[in-house]
Design a protein that fits this description.
The chain has one domain. The protein has one helix at about 55-90; strands spanning about 5-10, 15-20, 30-40, 45-55. It has about 90 residues and is α+β, with helices and mostly antiparallel strands. It starts with 5 loop residues before the first strand and ends with a helix. Helices cover about 35% and strands about 40% of the residues. The chain contains 1 helix and 4 strands; from the N terminus they run E-E-E-E-H. A 4-stranded antiparallel sheet has the order 1-2-3-4, with no helix packed on it.
């Protein structure tokens, strides 16, 4: 799926928020939020949140919930692997 999201907020090395719309805005919108929370020198918590809205949400919710969860689990796993490799190579 190709989207052209609008970036809403960026805090370097901390947070990014963007809003994507499927079809014209207002039919099905998704705000995505990615947050990094430092937990000391060698640990970080990665928080990912998504909030949907729009006229098509009631009929698209089951598909979004199932497909979105699988996609985010795969992406989060890839982010974890990449971050751990980066930490190993910089030590």
């Amino acid at each position: 799926m190709l989207l052209w999201p609008k970036v809403l907020e960026v805090e370097a090395e901390r947070k990014i928020r963007w809003l994507g719309s499927l079809l014209p805005p207002g039919l099905l919108d998704g705000e995505h939020i990615f947050i990094l929370e430092p937990l000391g020198k060698t640990k970080v918590r990665f928080v990912q949140r998504e909030e949907y809205s729009g006229l098509l949400l009631p009929i698209m919710w089951m598909w979004l919930r199932n497909q979105g969860l699988l996609g985010f689990e795969m992406m989060n796993g890839a982010i974890k692997v990449a971050a751990e490799r980066l930490c190993e190579s910089s030590s």
